[in-house]
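Rotation project, supervised by the postdoc (A.L.). Task for the rotation student: set up a whole-complex structure prediction and record inputs and outputs verbatim in this book. Inputs entered:
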Amino acid sequence: MTKIVWKAGTLLAPVPPALISCGSVEKPNVMTAAWTGIIASDPAMTYVSVRPSRYSHKLIQESGEFVINLTTLPLVKAADWCGVKSGKDVDKFKAMGLTAKPCAQVKAPQIEEAPVSLECKVKSVTNFGTHDMFLAEIVAVDVDDRYLDEKGKLWLEKAGLVAYVHGFYYTLGRKIGKFGFSVEKKPKKSKEKDFEPQKKTIKPKISSHKSKNTTKRHRNLMRP
Ligand SMILES: Cc1cc2nc3c(=O)[nH]c(=O)nc-3n(C[C@H](O)[C@H](O)[C@H](O)COP(=O)(O)O)c2cc1C
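Outputs recorded:
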């Protein structure tokens, strides 16, 4: 394998095309940010890197609050649009048919249509050249109860989350493992029905003259 060395860049992928809502429920704004992530779990800490020229930058700096809303397939057009239009010029919530819903712990609005919204309070702002990094504590998490089962377990894979890779949006592929599966002693049969390997694979066309062994080999190759 030959790898070509490029100059320093930001080619981390996939990243979330997250919808960052800010302002107030009465006067909400939303921008898209790919440069956001988790820093620590306890306390739950996050960041979002925002160019000072963004209208959202001003709103987040003034209020010290923002909300990270996860983007799904039905929201991907809004995510792209909110990432190219400014709240300086247009009410993006109205234009995209989004609902600004009050949060539990911050005055910034969450997007009702998002399956998960992380309510954040800014702890510090650090400039890194082109962007300011808002370091923030996640003070509450709002989860759409449609994705919770009767035991309160979250089935986030049902939400249709979207990833952003090098300029393009993608839906997620099939589930291929769970945390720690590589070190499990015996591959246990999962109780989660979605975790079962797909049974309905396309059957290879095997003509009658082929041996049983060939058929078996084909079947193994088809296994996910
Ligand atoms: C997929 C995507 C990811 C983006 N990520 C960021 C980001 O991480 N930081 C940033 O400052 N701008 C980012 N942008 C650009 C802003 O969302 C865009 O400038 C937006 O119009 C700002 O809106 P505002 O002026 O209402 O704040 C991204 C845009 C897209 C489409």
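Student's summary: Residues 17, 29, 31-35, 49-51, 54-56, 80, 83-88, 131, 164 surround flavin mononucleotide (CB under 6 Å).
Supervisor addendum: The longest strand covers residues 116-128.
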